[in-house]
C-alpha cells in the first residue's frame, strides 16, 4: 500500500505555490499551463514555494508567512528567468529530495501569537466578558454600518495580498467585508510592475477563465487553442466592471478574438466598493495588468 | 447472507468508483501527494467539526449508495421511502459542507460555507421535484419500485427534463465546476483553503465518493439502473454510473461558473419552474 | 413498554425545551427552546401513532402538522428578529450594553 | 432489541437537547438540536413510521441549517470563543422545566394508553396520501394558505425594500440637536446609519 | 430495522475511518494564521456573518414544507387520478404566489 502511494505521489504534478515578483507575471502564468506543474490556490495544498523574480523588501514578511503556511516537508525554489524547462526540472528534483529527506525547510517567522492570550482572563483563553479581550490571540469583529441593506452586522477587516492567487501579484488590499460584500477597500500597495507581455490577450483571457472555474480551458488558451468552454460570456453579468462604456463582457469578447482591450484611467476602489467578493475578483481579472497598475498607483502619485 | 453480499457490493462500488473518479479528474497522484504532507492546525479551530465533516460526507455517500438497487428488487436499504432517504442525504450534505467551511475559523472557508448554504438550499427544490416526478409512475417512493417502473421505457425518455436538472443537483452535491460555490477559485479554494495533509485528502476522497453515489442514484432513477439486456444487473448499473460520472466530470470542466447571486436567481426563476414543468409532464404521462 | 420509554423521552425533551424557552435571554435561543418542545411533541405523536392508535393516518398527518408549525414558527420568528434588529440593532430581550465585557 | 435502541435513541435525543443550551458555539447548538431531531426521526423509523421518521430528519436538517445561519448572524460571540452564559430567571426556568418533565413523566407512568400497534404489513405512506387527498383535504389546502401567509409575512418583515421604501427609513428617532446623533439607546459600534446609498440593479 | 442498522453502521465506520486517518495537527502561530495571500487580519474570522440572501432562506423553509405533503401524494397519485392532480395543482399554485411575490421584492439575490 505504501509503495503504491509513493509511486503515485512521484507521478503527481508538482503542487507549487507561486509568489510572483516584478516582471515575472507572464512567465509564471505560462509556466503553469504545463501538465507537470500545478498552481496551488493555497499554500496549504503545496509543497514547493516558487519565488519568481526579486521580491521587494516590503513584501518579505508576507513571503515568509506564506512560506511558513506551506505544510512541511517544504522547499523554496528561486526563479530568475531561466528557461522554463530547467526550472521545472529543478522543481521536480527538489520534490524528489523532499520525499527522501522528509524534513524540508524550517519556519522563518518566530512562533509568537498576534496577542498574548495564554492564561489571561477568567477562563484562561485571553477573553474578557462576552466579546472583549483577545481570545486565542485575536479580538472579535465588531458591528458597523452596512452599505447595502442596513443590517449592522460584524465587519471583518483584513489585508489581503501581495501573494493572493486571485489578486494580481503584489497588489495588497485593505478590505472591510460584511458577509462577502466589500464595504470598504483601500490599496495598501500597488501591484508589482510588469512589462507589456503580461497584457497579452491569451493571458488575460486565461486569468478570467481560471476564476470561472475553467482551469483546463485556460491551459488550452495558453497553448494557443480555443478554450472549448460553455457559457463563458453568459456567466459574466452585464455591466460588471464598466469603465468608459466597456464592461467585462466586452473586454472578454475582445480577448477571445485575440485583441487587446486598452483602458483609460479609472478609480479602482470605487469600482470595488459595494461589489460581492466574487464580482470584485472578476472585475480585477478583467483589467489588463498595465491599466490596473496605473490605476493603483494613481492615489499614491496624487 | 444477501445483506452481507450487498454490503460488499456497496463497498466495492464505492472504492472502484472513487478510483475511477480520481482517474477522470486526473487527481489520483495528487491525492497520494497530499497524503504525504503534514496537517496544519488553524487558529482556534472547531476541531470536532473539522474532523467529523469529511467523515460524515463519506458516510452520506455510502448511505446514498445503499438505497440503490444492484439488481432488480435487490437493494441494501430496501426502504419504502428510498427517495426520501436520498433527499435527506442531500440536505445533510449542505450541513457537512457548511461545517467544513465553518470549522477552520478563516475568512475564505467561511465565505465558501455561506455561499454553499445559499446555493445548496434552493438546489434541493429541483432535486426533490424531479425525484418525486420519477416516483409518480412507480406509485412508490422506493428506488426498487422506480426501477421496476422503467421496464418498458426509461424515465429519461418519459421525463426528458428530469436528468438534466438532476445533473445540476449532482454538480452541486459534489462541489464541481459551475456549481462549485464552496471551493471556488476566487476564494482560494474556499472551504478547503485551510485543509492540508490527510484531512485534505479525506475531504477530496469524500467528494469523489459522493460523485459515485449521486451518479448511481441518477442512473437508477433516470436510466433504469440495473435493467438491461444480456449483461447481469450490477454490470449495467456500474456502466451507467460510470457514464454519468464521466458526463459530470466533463460538465464540471467545461461550463463556466457565474456569481452566486446570479445563480441564486437562476435557481428560483429558471430551474424551479422547469422542475415544476417536469412534474406536470410526468404526472400527465403517468395518468 | 416501548411506548412508556418513548413518552418519558418526550416528557424530558419538553422539560428541557421549557427550561430553554424561559431562561434564554436571546430571542433566537428562545426559539431553540420552542423547537425542542415541539420535538418532544413530535416524539409523543410518533409513539402514540405507532403503538397506541393502530397506525391511523390522522396520526401521521398530525406529525406533519407539528413540523409545519415548526417551519412557520421559524420563518416568522427569524423575520421578526431581522425586523427588530434592523430597527433597534439589538436582538437581546434585555439591554445589550450591560453585557459587553 | 427495538426497546433497547429506542431507549438509547431517546437518551441521545435528550442529551443532545440538553447540550443545545450548554455549548458556547451557536453552530454547535443548532446542530446539536438537529442531532436531537435525528434521534427522534430514527425512533420513528424503528417504530414503523418510515416516512415520518426520515422526513423529520430531512426537514430538520434544512431548518437547522437556516437556524444556524440566523443564530450566527444575530448572536454575540457566535463561535463561543469566550465561554458565556446568557440566561435570566435561571432557577425559575430550571424549576419549571423539571416540574413539567416530572409531571408529564408521572402522567405517562400512571396512565394506561390502549395498546394497538400499527400492523406490520400496512402501507403507511399510501394511507397518508389517501388521507391527504380524501378526508383531510381541507387541512392540506389550509396548510398551503398558511405557508403562503408565512412566506409573504417573512418577506415583508425581513426584506428591506418594499412597496413603501426602505423598511428602516424613518425608524430612527430624531436627533437631540440639529443633525446630531439620534436620541435613545445607541447600538454598539455607533450610529452610522446615515448613508443609505443603495446598491441594486443586477440579478 | 435494516435501514437503521445500515445507516448507523456507515456513520460509525466513516467516523472510525476519519479518526484513524487524521493525525493530530500542529502549527506555529504564523503558520496557523488564516491564509490571506501573505496578508493578515486583525480579528477572528468567526463573526456575526452577514448572510446576504437571508430573506430567501426564510421563504425557502416555508416553501420546502410542501415536500412533506408531496411525497405521500406521489405514492397515491396514479390511484387517485385527476383529483390528485387538481389538488396538488391548487396547493402549488397557492405557494407559487409566495415565490412570485418574493421575486418581485427582489429577494432571490444578495441583499
TrEMBL record, chain A:
Region (Disordered): 104-126
Name listed for the protein in its UniProt record: Uncharacterized protein
Protein species of origin: Palleronia pelagia
Domain of life: Bacteria
TrEMBL record, chain B:
GO molecular function: NADH dehydrogenase activity
InterPro entries: NADH_UbQ_OxRdtase_su1/FPO
Location(s) in or outside the cell: Cell membrane; Membrane
GO biological process per UniProt: aerobic respiration
Signal peptide bounds: none
GO cellular component: plasma membrane
Topology of the protein relative to the lipid bilayer: Multi-pass membrane protein
Pfam entry (one): NADHdh
Transmembrane annotation, as ranges: 55-76, 83-102, 114-136, 205-223, 235-252, 264-286
First-listed, main subcellular location of the protein, grouped into a coarse class: membrane
Keywords: Membrane, NAD, Transmembrane, Transmembrane helix
PANTHER family: NADH DEHYDROGENASE SUBUNIT 1, NADH-UBIQUINONE OXIDOREDUCTASE CHAIN 1
Family: Belongs to the complex I subunit 1 family.
Descriptive protein name: NADH dehydrogenase subunit H
Organism expressing this protein natively: Palleronia pelagia
TrEMBL record, chain D:
GO molecular function: NADH dehydrogenase (ubiquinone) activity; quinone binding
Name of the protein described by the UniProt record: NADH-quinone oxidoreductase subunit J
Entry keywords, A to Z: Cell membrane, Membrane, NAD, Quinone, Transmembrane, Transmembrane helix
Subcellular location: Cell membrane
Transmembrane annotation, as ranges: 6-21, 33-52, 58-80, 92-112, 132-157
Claim: S-adenosyl-L-methionine is one of the keywords in the record: no
Family: Belongs to the complex I subunit 6 family.
Enzyme Commission number: 7.1.1.-
Region (Disordered): 164-203
UniProtKB/TrEMBL annotation, chain E:
Recorded catalytic activity of this chain's protein: a quinone + NADH + 5 H(+)(in) = a quinol + NAD(+) + 4 H(+)(out)
InterPro entries assigned: NADH_UbQ/plastoQ_OxRdtase_su3, NDAH_ubi_oxred_su3_sf
Subcellular location: Cell membrane; Membrane
Signal sequence bounds: 1-27
Cellular compartments per GO CC: NADH dehydrogenase complex; plasma membrane
Hydrolase is among the record's keywords: no
Segments crossing the lipid bilayer: 51-73, 85-103
Principal location class: membrane
Catalytic EC class: translocase
Membrane topology: Multi-pass membrane protein
Purpose of the protein: NDH-1 shuttles electrons from NADH, via FMN and iron-sulfur (Fe-S) centers, to quinones in the respiratory chain.
Stated family: Belongs to the complex I subunit 3 family.
Keywords attached to this entry: Membrane, NAD, Quinone, Signal, Transmembrane, Transmembrane helix, Transport
Name of the featured protein: NADH-quinone oxidoreductase subunit
GO MF: NADH dehydrogenase (ubiquinone) activity; quinone binding
Highest taxon listed in the record's lineage: Bacteria
EC number of this enzyme: 7.1.1.-
One Pfam entry name: Oxidored_q4
